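Good morning,

Attaching, inline, the backbone tokens for the sequence recovery test we're adding to the shared suite. The designed sequence is right after.
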């Protein structure tokens, strides 16, 4: 068990190949990964139990989410607050993302505001890729920071 506040990128470089490193690579992907290389991190048969867009399940949904986040936010950094390797190649990661809202995001025009939100992901790693994921993010907190939802 580990508690830290390092970035996903720092942990990718300092962690030996393992399910834990794959989980860090997944979070790093949202900050600096090339959407054309999404198959490097995610299994083609990905099961996403909380798809952001149910119309696009699996790896295509993740690809769309990465593109939407990259369009709406710059300077994205995922800091890892807590992580733990679990039995059978499952990994738990509690993270915080900070970024600047510089483009349209879910219909909200750029505000230029800094944002911060936390999330928890459970990853099942199979053959060095994310094969299954459960995730929860503070979307209400994000909406409040963008001024589209009052507290």
């Amino acid at each position: 068990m580990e508690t830290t506040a390092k970035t996903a990128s720092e942990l990718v470089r300092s962690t030996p190949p393992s399910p834990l490193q794959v989980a860090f690579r997944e979070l790093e992907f949202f900050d600096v990964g090339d959407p054309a290389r999404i198959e490097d991190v995610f299994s083609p048969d990905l099961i996403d139990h909380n798809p952001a867009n149910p119309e696009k399940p699996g790896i295509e949904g993740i690809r769309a989410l990465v593109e939407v986040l990259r369009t709406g936010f710059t300077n994205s950094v995922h800091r890892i607050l807590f992580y733990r390797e679990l039995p059978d190649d499952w990994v738990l990661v509690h993270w915080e993302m900070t970024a600047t809202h510089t483009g349209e995001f879910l219909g909200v025009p750029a505000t230029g505001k800094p944002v911060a939100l936390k999330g928890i992901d459970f990853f099942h790693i199979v053959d060095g890729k994310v094969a299954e994921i459960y995730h929860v993010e503070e979307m209400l907190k994000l909406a409040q920071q963008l001024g589209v939802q009052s507290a």
